[in-house]
Amino acid sequence: MDLNSTKIREIRTSKGWTQQQLAEISDLSLRTIQRVEVQGLGSLETSKSLAAAFEVERDLLLTAINNPTKDKGPSKRINTYFLLLSFMAGSLIGAMGLWLIT
């Protein structure tokens, strides 16, 4: 599972905790905390443990890939618009091609 390593490190440091302290509070290994903060990788259980330790919602610790509800902005509407525009242009060009052949 992809975790937001920047957010996790930010929350940890804002609380004044070391990685070792976070490991003890969350009942995870120091190596797991290091892997999460460097690579952004962790299991479902790791994300739950971190969320409980930080007293935040688990969704806050996930990346946008794992949390699609946070990625519904204007860009999605623009992509749909261009898809529709491309379809209409292709249909028009195809119709013109058939008209020219006959």
Order of helices and strands: HHHHH
Gross morphology is rod-shaped
- What low-confidence regions span 5 or more consecutive residues with pLDDT below 50? none
Number of helices: 5
Total beta strands: 0
State the helical fraction.
55-70%
Q: Could you report the average pLDDT, rounded to the nearest whole number?
A: 85
Query: Which structural category fits the helices and strands?
Result: mainly alpha
Radius of gyration: 23 Å
Q: What can be said about the biggest beta sheet?
A: none
Distance between the terminal alpha carbons, to the nearest Å? 57 Å
**DSSP strand content:** under 5%
Question: Any overview of this molecule?
Answer:
The protein is an all-alpha fold and 102 residues long. It is built from five helices and no strands. Helix 1 packs across helix 3 (30-39) and helix 2 crosses helix 3 (30-39). 20% of the residues are buried. The model has no long low-confidence stretch (mean pLDDT 85).
How are the SSEs ordered, and which strands pair?
Layout: H1 5-14, H2 19-26, H3 30-39, H4 44-54, H5 74-101
Short structural description:
The chain has five helices and no strands. It has 102 residues and is mainly alpha-helical. The chain is rod-shaped and about 80 Å long.
Main features:
single chain; 102 residues; mainly alpha; 5 helices; rod-shaped
